[in-house]
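Supplementary Methods. Inverse-folding protocol.

Structures were first reduced to a discrete structure-token string of length 147. This string, shown here, constituted the complete conditioning input.
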């Protein structure tokens, strides 16, 4: 897939969409592109990763033994927290079709963060807001259970 198409996909993600074209071009050009086929494992459960995965073509599934698998489609981002710290993905990620993913390593992210200090701050705030929203939703759900 060409760099222009990858930049367009990154621009349309919630994770990278607010970055300028220069940063998106660097990520698209410098990230590792991997091809996958149906059944390929992208990560295994409890694997410590130091990369973020952007599905740029095809679809993958997060395997969930207790519930239905979660389908991840083109343009989805997995593991963005790994760019800030070493993270454990608790579920295996398996390819559900032929496709391609962009792997953004922590090293690439750290290099960008050194040049653009607003990037890690943006990620920290984004994750903080997501956690706060989750807490709020859980509190609201708890209220409905009590009624």
């Amino acid at each position: 897939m060409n760099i222009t198409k990858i930049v367009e996909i990154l621009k349309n993600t919630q994770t990278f969409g607010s970055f300028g074209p220069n940063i998106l071009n660097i990520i698209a050009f410098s990230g590792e592109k991997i091809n996958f086929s149906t059944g390929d494992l992208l990560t295994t459960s409890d694997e410590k990763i130091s990369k973020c995965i952007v599905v740029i073509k095809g679809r993958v599934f997060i395997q969930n033994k207790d519930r239905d698998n979660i389908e991840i489609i083109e343009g989805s981002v997995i593991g963005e927290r790994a760019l800030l710290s070493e993270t454990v993905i608790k579920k295996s990620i398996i390819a559900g079709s032929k496709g391609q993913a962009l792997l953004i390593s922590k090293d690439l992210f750290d290099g960008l963060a050194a040049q653009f200090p607003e990037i890690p701050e943006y990620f920290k705030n984004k994750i903080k807001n997501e956690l706060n929203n989750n807490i709020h939703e859980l509190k609201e759900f708890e209220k409905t259970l009590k009624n």
